[in-house]
Amino acid sequence: MNKKLIFIAIVILIAAYFYADVKMPKEEPETKVGPEESGIPQISEDIQETVMTELDEEQKILSFDMTGYTDDGRKKWDIQGESANIVSDIAILDNIKANAYSENRTVTLQANSGKYNKKDNSVRLEDNVIVTTSDGVNLRAEWLEWDSETGNIKTDSFVEVTKDDLYASGRGALANTKDKEIQLEEDVKVKQGEITINCRGPLIIDYGKNEASFYNRVKVTEPRGELKADRLDIFFNPESREMESIVAEGNVELKQDANVAKGQRIIYTIATGKAILTGNPEILIYSKKDIKDAFIGD
Fold first, then answer.
1. Three-state DSSP class for residue 48
2. Spatial separation of the C-alpha atoms in residues 208 and 178, rounded to whole Å
3. CB-neighbour burial class of residue 263 (10 A; exposed 0-12, middle 13-18, buried 19+)
4. pLDDT per position as a tens digit, 130-165
5. Residue 279: what are its φ and ψ, rounded to 5°?
6. Which CATH number fits domain 180-298: 3.40.50.720, 3.30.429.10, 2.60.450.10, 3.40.640.10?
7. pTM for the complete prediction?
């Protein structure tokens, strides 16, 4: 029995000796690979946060819809768009569309992008701005601002306005969705058929009254002649929408063929080509044609 115990003890000692002599592989410390070694560009925390925000916004396009009502519960305006970012009181919108409702008339404003201010319900539209009315007015601008509460529209960009066959353009515009008046501020040009009118501005077009008023260095050209004045009022036929008559005031000068007349006020009928000149009229030159066919003075 003692011999067996001695033998087992010897075997254990031999095994312990060989185990201690074997070199176990040492665990290497973990090597951290930097961005340069891994091939991934290094991004600061600020930039990384911005990138993640942009990715989240691109993956989450929000539908934006706001509506305003009058005191008696009628719809006053509405705004729709795709919102990629809403910061505090400003909603940055894509494909924006807004409607302003008034009695017997709707005005629609559209643009590729814009900003809606939730504090005052104002909207700034940018990039391919188009304003249309239910009675046929079409306005295009580079940008404009619209106050949904007051209805005021304003811009200092280049503007084009069309209705029926009347074209008007200028720089800067004022309008209101509640009425039918548009004001172009500077460098005004109006064209209808063969008649072209230019002025420094402003031009006020009242589609409700079928009138237009031009101010500052007004010049009218048509095949039969040319008219210059400080101010010009045009009256349109309410049915045909064509220019019917012109009243010019201040330093008036009318040229027809070789005939030239000057005065302080003139009433010109477009259909007949005849003019009534008042205010110290002065005829400077006349052709062999009977001058009474062209001018009537007092």
1. helix
2. 12
3. buried
4. 999 999 999 999 999 999 999 999 999 999 999 999
5. 80, 70
6. 2.60.450.10
7. 0.73
